[in-house]
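Page 37, continued from 36.
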């Protein structure tokens, strides 16, 4: 009895073990193995190195280009206490008072029409002779450099009203672009020097005689 039981138990264990080993293979069948294919990646192309440094000829050409000169010069109409600005303020106040008086007179006259007798003076163009001759002999009076357009226009009107021929020239400075005001040009240097006292009395500016330079 015990011998039969042991034999059955051993047989059962063998059968169970065989089932565990072989049944999964029977159920799965043949496994299909798939081989993954990969595309060949091309090698990284070689890039040609670019030299960022400019050619010597280009550097020389760049250095040979003329640069705009920057002049160290200060404007004479900067600051509230500038005599030139004070003179303009007084002139503006006088013009304002004159305008008010004119309005009052117009009201008192009633139907009398007002006539605007302001004359527009034509701009005087400076006729320049040939550059080669003019630069050798012509002279001008430099009155000063200004940063405000209103001051330049007021000074030009004052000069032309007194019979002087005047012109302007822009210059570049570290603080910005200024406008130079000149009287002339004149071939007679002594004639310009004799006009300096009259110009100082008229404009309150200390002008100086300098050689006339033509700009292209």
């Amino acid at each position: 009895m015990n011998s039969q039981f042991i034999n059955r138990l051993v047989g059962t264990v063998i059968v169970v073990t065989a089932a565990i080993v072989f049944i999964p293979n029977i159920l799965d069948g043949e496994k299909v193995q798939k081989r993954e294919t990969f595309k060949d990646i091309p090698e990284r192309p070689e890039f040609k190195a670019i030299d960022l440094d400019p050619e010597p000829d280009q550097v020389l050409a760049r250095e040979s280009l003329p640069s705009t000169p920057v002049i160290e010069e200060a404007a004479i109409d900067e600051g509230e206490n500038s005599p030139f600005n004070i003179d303009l303020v007084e002139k503006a106040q006088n013009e304002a008072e004159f305008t008010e008086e004119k309005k009052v007179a117009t009201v008192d006259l009633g139907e009398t029409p007002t006539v605007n007798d302001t004359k527009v003076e034509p701009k005087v163009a400076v006729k320049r002779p040939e550059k080669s001759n003019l630069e050798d002999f012509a002279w001008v009076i430099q009155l000063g450099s200004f940063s405000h357009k209103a001051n330049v226009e007021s000074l030009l009107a004052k000069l032309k009203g007194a019979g002087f021929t005047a012109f302007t020239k822009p210059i570049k400075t570290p603080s910005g672009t200024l406008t130079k005001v000149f009287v002339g040009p004149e071939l007679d240097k002594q004639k310009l020097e004799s006009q300096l006292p009259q110009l100082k009395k008229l404009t309150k500016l200390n002008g100086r005689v300098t050689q006339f330079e033509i700009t292209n």
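Residues 103-115 have pLDDT under 50 and may be disordered. Flag for discussion at group meeting. The chain has six helices and four strands.
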